[in-house]
Amino acid sequence: MNKFLVSASAVAIALTASVGVAAARDQIRIVGSSTVFPYNQAVAEEYSSKTGNPAPVVESLGTGGGFRAFCGGIGPDHADITGASRAITKSEKELCASNGVTDITEALIGYDGLSLAISRKNDADWDLTEEQIFRAVAAELPNEAGELVPNPNQTWADVDSSLPATKIVIIGPPPTSGTRDAFVELTLHDGCSAMPFFAELKKTDRDAWNVACSRVRQDGLFVEAGENDNLIVQSLDGDVNAIGIFGYSFLYENSDKLKGVAINGVEPTFDTIADGSYPVARPLFFYVKNAHRGVIPGMNEFLEEYMSEEALAAGGYLAERGLTPLSEEKILEVREAVTGGKKLEM
Amino acid sequence: MAAVETTGSGARTIDWSSDEFKKRRSRRYAADRRLQYYGIAAIATALGLLAILITSLVMTGYTAFTQTMVSVQITLDDERIDRNDVFGANWRNIVRDAFKAATPGLETADERAYFAMFTNNAPFLVRDRVVADPRLVGTTVTFTIPMADPVDQLAKGQIDRSTPESQRRVSDQQIAWFDGLAQQGMISRPFNTGLFFNADSRFPELAGLAGAISGSFWALMVCFFISFPCGIAAAIYLEEFAPKNKLTDLIEVNINNLAAVPSVVFGLLALAVFIGWFNMPRSIPLVGGLALALMTLPTIIIVTRASLKSVPSSIREAALGIGASKHEVIMHHILPLAMPTILTGTIIGLAQALGETAPLLLIGMNAFITSPPAGILEPATALPTQIFIWADSPERGFVSRTSAAILVLLGFLITMNAIAIFLRQRFERRW
């Protein structure tokens, strides 16, 4: 027993001591947005299968969390690449610069279509305008006297008499999600500005406008599901009148159960998202730390794989995963920027 | 006649057979029975919920334990494969030609849809097998290759053939091709060994738990080798040597409190200390194991102290009586006698650590990694975090794989608890 204890503690000490060895690393580390995560996954797997190099480690930390890890500094302890579902902000650039990360390259990889969908068991053909969506979802709407009151609409017929008289149920992502930010920015803000009352408010008091147009009703008609889009898909299957909001790839994968809700007469499809006629789409990026190229093994080969025709082009494997691809000229431009290590203005 | 009568001398006589007492009695019996029924109802509710959980997992998960495969003959031509550079051959074309040969009369325009029926990584699977065994070059070998997820779902009846073509992931043409392959006897659906021997993949047909199982194994090893010796040493000191004073009381209270601290707190601690200060890399089982060790340590200390306490003092006194030193008493007598209980407690503590997700999420053990870790310093996932990743994937095949992974995790937990029960039954001494 005595010997066992001694050897066990020796092993424990050896484990703790071996940590110093772990500093160098031979695999690429990718962090960032959960929306870009599936595309990073795809390229990472393809790269490692093709070259036989160690598999990159891909983590989903969210756009903001990704930049915090990415901008932490230079060296093997910090991530090499981060995905983002929006462009880098000024404060994130400052954070990067303050930690010595000054040479980064930005790459636009395509667009993410956010889709509204409903169960196929629902008989009606759904075609909404952004204003109707806003009227259904907003926390407060102006009444006839021009005062903001809690949203009185209970059924879609209350929103617009041409719509079915079924109860409004919208299942969407929580405020922490990038998908929610995109929904608020791309749909609610537009729908809000289409109402004369708020258009007026935008001119006089932008902050109040921003608050009023971003707030979502809390009376139970807008259901905040978790970050898990699969859960939303399942709830839609269970409630025929519920409309869900999630990334287009989930609608594409479940097209036997769900149908898209058209916005302004446009159905969500790859084509309508790519040409911008489906209004709820956002650009996706990744950012590369140029100081790590040539230091972390395989960085250049990985970027080559990411920029390859097979990955990025229309019909490439990223498009198969749900990414809406860029136009051909744009792909050439991005490829040149990435291979040349074009420095982002800080 | 009244039920209770006071006789002249003051003594009371009770008529037990009176109606009032019969009623009282039946009320008390009824209360007994009700209490019993509440208990049975509670157990039935618990068992019912458990049954619902397991049934729903099995119902959604069982399909993931088989995988639709296609057996295809591939000619490994000398002309197309350079024996000195097997890795660099054009495997994509070699494999595609073999697939094409299985369906004669395939039009060029349809090729893309046709190849989409087979797993995207088929060329790599063939390549890796030939690289591992270069003697295959120059022969014709039958390879069994997984079908892509939509076709797998079709074969398993998860995709209904009667739905309109635009509403399903496989086209009528693909169904016709699939039926053609099936008629030639090329389609089989064996047990899905890949689920246990493949690492993670973005393709459900290839995704497996090997990375997660080995990651969990390494993390639990680290956890065991740190928390077991530390826990026992701490418990021996506190139980046998420590003076009884305010300080040791404080330590005791704190250990009991630590056992109840939510595990996410230990994750934050590991993030700040091991990754922040000690600059250890993220996502490695060493850090995961350390975080789990912090969580398991208090449990082991408490169990060890309790089992040391339960060894009868007669043994201690007898050993001391014949001149054994304190060290000998503890190491030769008390600890060996207490060991079965300590081991039982440790295994239950480790089983708890195995199912723990929150601390691992914080230290990045929920990354996507397509190769299993070879040691405690290589990035890995763990079983619960793998479930977490799969649950969030859009592909239909991951729905059943998530349930299957949960069943695998439950299987490990049941095994560990069974070992703990076995140890307790077999070796525990009762005094």
From TrEMBL, chain A:
Coiled coil: none
InterPro entries the record matches: PBP_domain (IPR024370), Phosphate_ABC_transporter (IPR050811)
UniProt domain PBP: residue ranges: 20-310
Statement: the UniProt record of this protein carries the keyword Ligase: no
UniProt entry keywords in alphabetical sequence: Signal
Gene3D superfamilies with a match to the protein in the record: Periplasmic binding protein-like II (3.40.190.10)
Pfam family, one: PBP_like_2
Signal peptide stretch: 1-23
The protein's name in its UniProt record: Phosphate ABC transporter substrate-binding protein
UniProtKB/TrEMBL annotation, chain B:
UniProt keyword list: Cell membrane, Membrane, Transmembrane, Transmembrane helix, Transport
Higher taxonomy: Bacteria, Pseudomonadati, Pseudomonadota, Alphaproteobacteria, Hyphomicrobiales
Family: Belongs to the binding-protein-dependent transport system permease family. CysTW subfamily.
GO molecular function: phosphate transmembrane transporter activity
Main location: membrane
Membrane topology: Multi-pass membrane protein
Protein name listed in UniProt: Phosphate transport system permease protein PstA
Keyword Transport recorded: yes
Domain ABC transmembrane type-1: 213-420
A single GO cellular-component term on record: plasma membrane
GO biological process, one term: phosphate ion transmembrane transport
InterPro entries in UniProt: DUF3333 (IPR024573), MetI-like (IPR000515), MetI-like_sf (IPR035906), Phosphate_PstA (IPR005672)
Keyword hit for Transport: yes
Residue stretches spanning the membrane: 35-59, 217-238, 258-278, 284-308, 329-351, 404-423
Subcellular location per the Swiss-Prot or TrEMBL entry: Cell inner membrane; Cell membrane
